[in-house]
């Protein structure tokens, strides 16, 4: 192959005249430049570690401390109160030289120790400031004097420009709530869902748990919280995600969509070129830690975003991450390719990547036997995939090709279909667009990758993300940057192609080779059948709601999220005639390694409002408004408590894990954790408003993303509040449940 020949830097042969050495200076130059890029990245990482290690001080502050100490000593004053002299007595004589007197060296040592002490003191102060969460509970426009002082001190202490992860070591640890408080909040959350006899029984179970087993489990949990960075995150990742043996497609993975009204270019290869470039520019920012963290909500980016895959195991999966990758994996018409995106240490231009992608699109070669639907292994059950991987993909050509996919920066699917809001049935096409991103054909995505990009034939794009390595806001931040960079910074020529020049000497993308035996092909067929049945059962509906948005809601002095959540309670009541346990995801990024907590949105107050509104009784309009106001305030308070570590479900989950480790059974915990979330909801936050100029470009509206239903007889609802006048809903359910219809449920929201 041409790539193999170009990769050879030198050759030598032994002849009767001696050794004939042939050097390829071009190949050696490529190796040299790639090495330079690698060393630059290493130096950058070391530099960033130093800067983060001394934050909120700076490395240059050491020189300031040294000069201050030496200046004070020059004025015949001892700022160390005798410590410099004691240090001098204990320094080895070998350290002294004619150019550095003992007193000077001792002063340098003292200055360095003083500098480290000041850093620790500043970091302790910053941690105390970041532990203050009362500002969350204050009403908008009514800021207390304490919070004003806190804001001032925080700005002073963190005035130096931070790197992406500068705040991580200063964040407080997630506290373990008192077990009595958690049980009290739990009982309050299920009160509107249980009859009086059932609530009495649950109260008795909770009391028995608290007085007997609960306190014992709590002690173990507090012990873990003392040494663990976060007492929840590692168990949550392992037991909720990685130990699941069912398909991750639909059940775990989620999707993100393109712009609603705009497709920047109809040229598939060009859209791929700009999208891949934007993603790699984002990776560069993550590696260099150039993304700006928000002070009150530490930036959710994760180092495992790129070059990461979830590898299957018999009992549990494992997340594998590589430091760097200079290529992406591409799937098109049943073939897999390795597309190098760097050459001689230089990132290819968007136009060059477009050129390479077009070569893949134009490649007429057919799939190898068993290659076309190989990705179905990642869509089916995990144990068969683990067995196949261990037996048939651990050596030879299969291992090399699988390594190319798993080590790739990310996965790209060049889909042969057209998607988006188009044609005579725009609403139905949006629904099909959502289903395509959620599961595709069940074999044309690599669901194990941290995320997969899908570029459709008509230039529409989207992504499918694996859930275990990070939560949706992390991917949403990445996707916002990608869409904005693609449309507003990189741009396209008038004929829809990427900008820039092309080096036509680029080697062709490398076709991945496989040797798929009949046993693997049989398992691919079996996994595809499982995945296809799961995909066919998913009912997706995307609903852009434009009658009003957060602008009108905020005029009522109501939280937009609370407004929507109460609306969902009303919609579910109209749909099913009752209430259900409701899950809303909340971030716990105020704490170190924080991920999510559950907001139990179905409250006594929201139920009271819905019943009053639907009861048919003649009630005073003012009374209904008061009930709505109470429900809104209650929801906001629940959300704030979840954000500040006073949630319910993560604490109960960890207590359950401890009970399993100890080998003891708890009827209370077993019942609590088996309760189905028939309404699972999540807001996709718009985190980088500055990237989108909706005033001058109102059509560049993000559709957000969605996920599959959590319960077989329930709904999965995702929503994104876009601008001032639009809310986009993504609703999913299962066709196999006759009581759930995604399109009908959303209709109830707009009634």
TrEMBL record:
Pathway: Lipid metabolism; fatty acid beta-oxidation. SUPFAM superfamilies: CoA-dependent acyltransferases (SSF52777). InterPro entries: Carn_acyl_trans (IPR000542), CAT-like_dom_sf (IPR023213), Cho/carn_acyl_trans (IPR039551), Cho/carn_acyl_trans_2 (IPR042231), CPT_N (IPR032476). Its EC number is 2.3.1.21. It is an enzyme of class 2 (transferase). It is a multi-pass membrane protein. It comes from the Eukaryota. The chain crosses the membrane at residues 54-75, 95-122. The keyword Mitochondrion applies. This is carnitine O-palmitoyltransferase. One of its GO terms (molecular function) is carnitine O-palmitoyltransferase activity. Keywords: Acyltransferase, Fatty acid metabolism, Lipid metabolism, Membrane, Mitochondrion, Transferase, Transmembrane, Transmembrane helix, Transport. PROSITE patterns: ACYLTRANSF_C_1, ACYLTRANSF_C_2. The gene is cpt1a2b. Residues 174-742 form the Choline/carnitine acyltransferase domain. It is found in: Mitochondrion outer membrane. Residues 1-47 form the Carnitine O-palmitoyltransferase N-terminal domain. The active site is at 467 (proton acceptor). GO terms for cellular component: mitochondrial outer membrane. Belongs to the carnitine/choline acetyltransferase family. It holds the Pfam family Carn_acyltransf. GO terms for biological process: carnitine metabolic process; fatty acid beta-oxidation; long-chain fatty acid transport. It catalyses: (R)-carnitine + hexadecanoyl-CoA = O-hexadecanoyl-(R)-carnitine + CoA.
């Amino acid at each position: 192959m041409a790539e193999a020949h170009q990769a050879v830097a030198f050759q030598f042969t032994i002849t009767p005249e001696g050794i004939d050495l042939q050097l390829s200076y071009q190949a050696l130059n490529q190796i040299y430049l790639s090495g330079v890029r690698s060393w630059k990245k290493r130096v950058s990482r070391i530099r960033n570690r130093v800067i983060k290690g001394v934050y909120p001080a700076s490395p240059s502050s050491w020189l300031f401390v040294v000069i201050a100490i030496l200046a004070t000593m020059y004025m015949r004053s001892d700022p160390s109160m005798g410590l410099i002299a004691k240090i001098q007595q204990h320094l080895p004589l070998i350290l002294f030289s004619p150019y550095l007197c003992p007193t000077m060296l001792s002063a340098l040592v003292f200055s360095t120790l003083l500098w480290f002490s000041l850093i620790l003191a500043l970091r302790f102060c910053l941690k105390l400031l970041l532990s203050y969460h009362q500002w969350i509970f204050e009403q908008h426009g009514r800021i207390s004097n304490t919070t004003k002082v806190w804001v001032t001190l925080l700005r002073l202490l963190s005035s130096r420009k931070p790197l992406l992860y500068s705040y991580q070591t200063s964040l407080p640890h997630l506290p373990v709530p008192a077990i009595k408080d958690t049980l009290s909040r739990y009982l309050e959350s299920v009160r509107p869902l249980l009859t009086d006899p059932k609530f009495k029984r649950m109260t008795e179970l909770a009391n028995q748990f608290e007085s007997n087993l609960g306190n014992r489990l709590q002690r173990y949990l507090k012990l873990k919280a003392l040494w663990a960075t976060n007492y929840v995150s590692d168990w949550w990742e392992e037991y909720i995600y990685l130990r699941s043996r069912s398909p991750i497609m639909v059940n775990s993975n989620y999707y993100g969509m393109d712009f609603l009204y705009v497709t920047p270019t109809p040229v598939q290869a060009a859209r791929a070129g700009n999208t891949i470039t934007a993603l790699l520019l984002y990776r560069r920012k993550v590696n260099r830690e150039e993304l700006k963290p928000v002070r009150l909500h530490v930036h959710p980016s994760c180092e495992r975003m790129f070059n990461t895959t979830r590898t299957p195991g018999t009992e549990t999966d494992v997340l594998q991450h590589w430091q760097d990758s200079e290529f992406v994996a591409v799937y098109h018409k049943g073939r897999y390719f390795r597309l190098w995106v760097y050459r001689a240490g230089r990132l290819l231009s968007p136009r060059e990547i477009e050129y390479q992608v077009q070569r893949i699109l134009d490649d007429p070669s057919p799939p190898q036997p068993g290659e076309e639907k190989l990705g179905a292994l990642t869509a089916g059950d995990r144990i068969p995939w683990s067995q196949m991987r261990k037996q048939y993909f651990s050596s030879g050509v299969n291992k090399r090709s699988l390594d190319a996919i798993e080590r790739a920066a990310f996965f790209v699917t060049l889909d042969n279909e057209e998607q988006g809001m188009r044609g005579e049935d725009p609403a139905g096409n949006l629904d099909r667009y959502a289903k395509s991103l959620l599961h595709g054909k069940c074999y044309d995505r690599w669901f194990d990758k941290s995320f997969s990009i899908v570029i459709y034939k008509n230039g529409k794009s989207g992504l499918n993300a694996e859930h275990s390595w990070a939560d949706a806001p992390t991917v949403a931040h990445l996707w916002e940057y990608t869409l904005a960079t693609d449309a507003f910074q990189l741009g396209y020529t008038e004929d829809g192609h990427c900008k820039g020049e092309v080096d036509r000497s680029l080697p062709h993308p490398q076709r991945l080779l496989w040797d798929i035996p009949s046993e693997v092909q049989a398992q691919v067929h079996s996994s595809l059948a499982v995945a296809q049945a799961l995909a066919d059962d998913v009912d997706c509906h995307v609903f852009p709601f434009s009658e009003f948005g957060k602008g009108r809601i905020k005029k009522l002095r109501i939280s937009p999220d609370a407004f929507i959540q109460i609306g969902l309670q009303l919609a579910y009541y109209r749909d099913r005639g009752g209430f259900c346990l409701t899950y809303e995801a909340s971030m716990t990024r105020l704490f170190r390694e924080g991920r999510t907590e559950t907001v139990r949105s179905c409250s006594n107050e929201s139920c009271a409002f819905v019943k009053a509104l639907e009861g048919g009784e003649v009630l005073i309009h003012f009374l209904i408004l008061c009930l709505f106001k109470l429900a809104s305030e209650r929801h906001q308070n629940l959300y704030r408590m979840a954000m500040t570590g006073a949630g319910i479900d993560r604490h109960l989950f960890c207590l359950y894990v401890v009970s399993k480790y100890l080998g003891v059974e708890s009827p209370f915990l077993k019942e609590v954790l088996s309760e189905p979330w028939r309404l699972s909801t999540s807001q996709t936050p718009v985190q980088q408003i500055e990237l989108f100029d909706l005033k001058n470009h109102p059509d560049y509206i993000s559709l957000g993303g969605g996920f599959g239903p959590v319960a077989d007889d329930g709904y999965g609802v995702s929503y994104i509040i876009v601008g001032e006048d639009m809310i986009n809903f993504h609703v999913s359910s299962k066709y196999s449940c006759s009581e759930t219809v995604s399109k009908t449920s959303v209709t109830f929201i707009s009634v």
